[in-house]
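For the sake of transparency, this paper describes our internal protein records without simplification. Because each token names a local backbone shape, the row as a whole describes the fold. One such record is reproduced below, unchanged from the form in which we store it:
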Amino acid sequence: MSGELDLLKWIHGRLGRRRGPIVVDSGDDAAVLRVGRERLLFKVDSVVEGVHFTKNTPPEKIGYKALARPLSDIAAMGGVPIAALAAAVLPRSWSLARAKRLQKGMEQLGVPIVGGDIATHKGPLTLSVSVLGDMKGAAPVLRKGARPGDVLMVTGPLGGSIRGKHLVFEPRLEEGRLFATRLRVHAMIDISDGFARDLGHLCTASGVGAELDRIPIAKGSTLRGALYDGEDYELIVAASPSTARRIEREGWAMPVGRVRGGRAIRGKLEMLGLRGIQPRGFEHQLG
């Protein structure tokens, strides 16, 4: 059985060497294109009934989550969102009033929905949202760039998705912009597939390993949940020790370990009953 990562690697390989306006492609949280003197961000995400929410989830929360997900990726690059497009495939059983509630959920995030598409079918709800962002003169923060000796940090407690955080989280746009401009951190990624898996992506892209010594666990979760459950939508940051001290002092993020040489992810967490820390988490599967 194959998964989404196998398909993404295959798609990424088909881009070839023709770069043109492409600054960053599908190997990071968002694509970056050079348009004139500007560097613009592009990101698309989808939510599907039965995968990202249940049939009984209020439409407002579905709409909110659908837009908040790609905004979290814009935050992980240090960008500023400009506008969004939304494409909805609605169940034919939905009323007009229910569909309007979906739109109102997206509007809560304050990003203009400037276009999109609407279709209906007999199946479940699917909502795809694309976001356009701007770096506004700053360089995008990539997954690669972490260096041995850097401090690893996260912007909030992990493992809360099972208690509903995945429907109400606030994208870390302010923090991401701060990290990209004033603080110039070395690497960043948002946590969508699970802390361990997304840390693995950052380490692989940077060619480094990690030594973990603590994980902030959300109320009602467990260490295993904090490592592997996913949909936390916090940011993982790699910063120099001096920058990390300032970040911690100001309360923007908290340290969880350090970047080290090699490729393994390990640490004192193993003393808490985990036999190693595997870079795994949620992944969509193909037959």
Remarks:
- The chain has a mean pLDDT of 90.
- Residues 59-77 form the longest helix (19 residues).
- Residues 12 and 159 are 30 Å apart (CA to CA).
- The chain is about 25% helix and 30% strand.
